[in-house]
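We store chain and fold; example below:
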Amino acid sequence: MTDAPDVTDATGRPGTHAARIDAAVARLTTAAATGTPCAPVREFLGGTDIDAAYEVQRRLAEARTAAGARVVGAKIGLTAPAVQQQFGVFQPDFGVLFDDLTFAHTEPVPLRRFLQPRAEGEIAFVLGRDLDRPGANVADVLRATEFVLPAIEIVDSRIADWDLSITDTVADNASSGAVVLGTTPYPLTGRDLSRVGMTLRRDGEPVSFGAGHACLGSPVVAVAWLARELVRRERPLRAGDVVMSGALGPMVPVTGPGRFRLELDGLGEVEAAIEEETK
């Protein structure tokens, strides 16, 4: 598979909008298939054309579902100021959550599936109702949420050295890798998620701290933002979807096998068991 079409403009980039989309899809597909990080796709998309980047994401998601993966929800990225500062990208984005990206508490997660993994602590929402109204607000999210779970996201990037603009991470499915979900559901009744404290430990040592207010003010606000965006793009959230609401604090590198344990005040714990090989 070639990295870009032959048709180019005076800058050397593919010359048409469609050709640029094709080139970005090809580059990210090759990186995922070979396990070799690639150059940024903003070379094709520019650094600000978010709609073009979401079209790349949509094309890659369709290829995954055609290959047998099942969509089980969505994920929000770039919500915490600490993470935004890490990458110099100061607006949230979203990606698609697939069944083969989803693991349970202590279930072995194979390290070999990642290129450049990092871990972060989050709260996952499980919906009991559709969120398909234009202009969805926090009350809609609260009514639609059946329960929440503690969750660890293993973010990953096909872009070499995490050299990202907003279009790079959007096109790359919001830098998705895997999610690990807790197994004890917690209702939202009477809970202020903005005040939930977070500690993420690696092999027993604390490596990241955060709180719910770091996630766009509250994870509920983040999910409301996502609901509006997905309705606008005609991809609304449905009952049964799992929504990863975004990081509560800084992400940390996954440098090898180990155990990451997330502790959330009042919302339990979850452990991600990252293993070199799985049986």
Notes: The CA atoms of residues 142 and 189 lie 9 Å apart. The chain has seven helices and 13 strands.
